[in-house]
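Lay summary

Proteins are chains of building blocks that fold into shapes. Our project writes down both the chain and a compact code for its shape. Here are two examples, one after the other.
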Amino acid sequence: MEAGRGIERIIVAEEMMKAGAPISASWIADRQMGPAIYSYGTQDQKERFLPAMLEGESTWCIGMSEPNSGSDLASLQTFAKRDGDSFIINGQKIWTSIAAISDYCYLIVRTLNDGPPHKGLSEIVVPMDLEGIEVRPIVDAVGNRHFVKSFY
């Protein structure tokens, strides 16, 4: 598909909505995470994540906003400290759409505190079923629970 041309995606999305498919569950994987992993991921990440996205078998959320930062990514406080091949993550995200039903979270965290605020940010894929992750729904004015607070 050429840049700027997305009519095919719009048609597919409209057909999915017409059929009652849970479009929000696939939207982040299809529109954001899939292209990012395809373009910038390692071969292992592509083999691990892309097939399930293409089959509609994985649900993703994006953890960016924080209570004291909003969407100002340079002021994020959630910190990830390397521990061998893993990271220990400590912090909170808010307004994370569909996190309560997601398999994975594309989490933006701080990994360095030195230097300018926009430096030291990293992107980590976090399985949402890991021990220690807590997800609390935010109930909106009409009773919907699309957004959550998530604690790591």
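And here is the second example, written the same way.
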Amino acid sequence: MAVNNHPFSRGICHIRSANPKDKPILDPRYLSHPLDLEVLARQTQYIETIVETKPFASLLKSSGRLPGGKEATSLDGAEEIVKERLFSTFHPTGTCAMMTEEIGGVVDTRLRVYGTKNLRVVDASMFPMETLGNIQATIYVVAERAADLIKEDWKRDV
């Protein structure tokens, strides 16, 4: 299984209506950045190289690794395998990414939602890229920093 820990593809998340019970419009747009597909395809090819070497070759059935007799010998073949077998892992992030508004960001460097004064995002959705390791510890750090930012802004506005 190949894993892309830092995908460049950007999905969308929009509210459907003013009704909070309406489900949001979500489209992860997996593989919308061409580099994501190439990274996963090349990893798939490399995994095939690994499992064809000793001692793996003698332990694994050659017919049991890839579905439908597909082969990852060519980049095109590996890309087809990736497209058929892709799924998300870990904790997807970035639905309210901290980036400039011009490139699709939702929050600024003080975690404020663009176009608002007092609405902040303090969870994993503000990460523009997936973090390495367990995400919970990183969220704790962001929450601590958010508390400092809120106190700073409150003191400045008083």
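What can we say about the second shape? The longest strand covers residues 12-14.
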